[in-house]
Amino acid sequence: MSQPLLFQSSDQATERITLFADVILPLPLPKLYTYRVPFDMNDDIFVGTRVIVQFGAKKILSCIVADVHETPPAGYQAKYILEIIDEKPVVTPQQLKIFNWIAEYYMCTIGEVINAALPSALKLSSESRIQLHPQFNAEYPVYPLSPAEEKIVFALGQNKTLTFTEVGNLLQINHFHKIIKSLIQKEVIIIFEEIADKYTPKVVKKLRLSPNFVHEAEMLEELMNQLAVRPKQLDVVLHYLQKVPVHQNVHLNEKGVDKNILTSNPHLSLSSINALIKKGILEQFETIVSRFPVDDTKPIPAFNLSEHQIAARDEILNLFGSKDIVLLHGITGSGKTEVYIDLIKKAMEGGGQVLYLLPEIALTAQIVTRLIKVFGNRLGVYHSKFSDNERVEVWNGILSGRFSVVIGVRSAIFLPFYNLSLIIVDEEHESSYKQYEPAPRYNAREVALMLATYHKCKTLLGSATPAVETYYNAKTGRWGLVTMNKRFGQAGLPDIELVDTRRESQKKTMHSHFSQKLLAMIESKLKKEEQVILFQNRRGYAPYINCHDCDWIPKCKNCAVSLSYHKYNRELRCHYCGYHETMPHECPACGSAMIKTVGFGTEKIEDELKLLLPEANIQRMDLDTTRSKNSYQQIIADFEANNTNVLVGTQMVTKGLDFENVSLVGIINADSIINYPDYRAHERAYQMFVQVSGRAGRKGKKGLVIIQTGNPSQGIFQKVMENDYMALYEHEIQERRKFNFPPFMRVIKVTVKHVDEKLNEQAAALLAKEFTDRLPNNQVLGPEVPYIFKIRNYFLSEIHIKLDREHTSLKSAKLVIADAINQIKFNKDFRNIRVVVDVDPV
């Protein structure tokens, strides 16, 4: 907003205006808080900047300014803002709009949205920590330090880090934030969140000639003469002058050259380099560089589409003339990514920004490699495996215009775009776009559509197996629809075969969890030096262990689930709360040593395959093997380089990966995916089977997919084998119309949680009655106890509310739901219940 700063009185004397700021605290608070702006900050405070405030008796927080005005708060005395952090806003007006929409639509607080949206390094609190800057030299500081600043530096030298609270105690003053800001500006300290990694800037060691030899040609000539008797050292200096022609421009010497350029040269002596440094002829220094170096001079290389891809692109552009949203329904391997790249180039040529969303980090590793060849350093990457500092660099890079294209997972929708012209949501059907815990429980696909509305830009949704709701919107004409039904180049769709594991078990032809057919085909492909992907939708070694004698099964002490066995760590682990314990040697119930594993996960598949195929190089890709930052990239790089013969994985291997040497895909246990108590079960099973099948035979080789099932007569398999999405869609849409599910109804799931099971049941029953009484024209289902009825010591009850799209205002219904929840919480017996609202659950 345009804020008042000064006004003139009748005698032209300048008067001071008292300003107030409404701020968004990163806390689950129902309202914004208002703080008073000190007079000397009037000219410096803007909507979207971060300020430091005191909240409560002791807590110090950074927050975002949402509004600046002259109206004091009603009902409480406004505290003063302590400090303004930013000279320019770090949150844009468009972001504040989308943050407010998310809070309203997904029934959470704006503070919860801000907490999810901002990288940790942009959120400071009384538990934020400071440390000495890596380049700070305490003996020779660049800038003079005040006594208070010297006190902090000395303490950091002793303790390494200090919290803001400890700084206040050290200085024995309340308002010390200006001192912190001064030390940051002098590059004496840096700030990091205690829960995040310490800030470690990317530092490069460099070398340069001593300035004496650069500014005086005679001295450089004399140096050459002196080094004539030491040819190896002379070679180093000559090589440096070749890389850094100081005789043409003396200022080039200031930047120097990366040390590793000289040390990695096999023709130069490392000892000679070190000798030159010791003599003071070469100076060694360090410089902090960006993790995303910019090279604006690099041209975008030429990129050629096939006729089929050109036709699809032109149809998309034509539909964008009348539709804001277009669905690209392209079978696996049809070349959708190349179409995306061409559309991104056109958006960039028009000066716009592009957001390219992917559902999984695993996909970004391979696609980033492809995109960086086209867009170079114009491309920013944003996902949770990046360090907090890297995410802040991308955030600031978008604000400054460094990045024209950002590829990222669901959290990328929070970034500060100011000129979006295109959003691409690839694999739009994926449930990974949905945030489950904590709030906001948003769906990035839906937020992207609203983000596009605020930016007045176009959205392209892409999938080989679109969500039923998405395809319904496209088929009914609300959105545009473009179809790509041919694979790119010479590649054809793979052959799909079913193997009846029940029959093979009866014939005793199963080798552990591998049918005779699958094992024979794996061996055949490996002999041809082709690669194999095996899909099992469960990680770990076994879902649970069991005592053969007394039937004891270990359970999680916090959740109503059995503990999964992980062989690598020799431990039993809960996949819901993280509780773990050591694998017992004997049954704690009866003392028997006859403990066996039941079922199997990816770890067991990998283990058994190594015994069956000892010559094969087998690797596993699941949550357990991809916890470190670069693990995705390494596993994918090894597979692309044919260092790995067989890749065993969970859903991660089903999505968008492109390997030219994969000719066989095996689905180990298809039934576990189909037999799930959810109205989307068949849709998800079809999507998963088709997606993982699409990894086979992508570069001309004929692919084969083997699906192992105990019930091959299931109708879903015929649709998969014929790649008949329309048959699946027609069946699903009829079922949903018949039983009132999306897209014909809206669904809101309300989960009641309490540590006392009986109180939980009572509160849920009372809440369901409140909903039924207040929403007469809609359906309230439940309460019912979910399949997993206890998680993290909380008992659960679920209520599903189906809202009629035609006759119910979603906004008013949400107000009724929120009011009913508040009414229940007024009851002293239910004061400690937790109620979680999930709008549009998936």
What distinguishing features does this structure have?
842 residues, 7 domains, 27 helices, disordered N terminus, GIY-YIG endonuclease, 36 strands, globular
Helices and strands in order, then pairings?
Blueprint: E1 6-8, E2 14-16, E3 19-24, E4 33-37, E5 50-55, E6 59-69, E7 83-84, H1 93-105, H2 110-117, E8 129-132, H3 147-159, E9 161-163, H4 164-171, H5 177-185, E10 189-192, E11 203-209, H6 211-215, H7 217-226, H8 231-243, H9 252-255, E12 257-258, H10 259-263, H11 270-279, E13 282-288, H12 307-320, E14 325-330, H13 336-349, E15 353-357, H14 361-375, E16 379-382, H15 388-400, E17 405-408, E18 420-426, H16 444-455, E19 458-463, H17 468-475, E20 480-484, E21 495-500, H18 501-507, H19 516-527, E22 531-535, E23 544-547, E24 564-566, E25 571-573, E26 580-582, E27 595-598, H20 602-612, E28 618-621, H21 631-640, E29 646-649, E30 662-667, H22 671-674, H23 681-693, E31 704-709, H24 715-721, H25 725-739, E32 745-754, H26 757-774, E33 779-784, E34 790-791, E35 794-804, H27 810-825, E36 834-839
Parallel strand pairs: 14-19, 14-20, 15-17, 15-18, 16-17, 18-19, 21-31, 22-29, 22-30, 28-29, 30-31
Antiparallel strand pairs: 1-2, 3-4, 3-6, 5-6, 5-7, 8-9, 8-10, 11-12, 11-13, 23-27, 24-25, 25-26, 32-35, 32-36, 33-35, 34-35
Helix pairs in contact: 1-2, 1-16, 12-13, 14-21, 23-24, 26-27
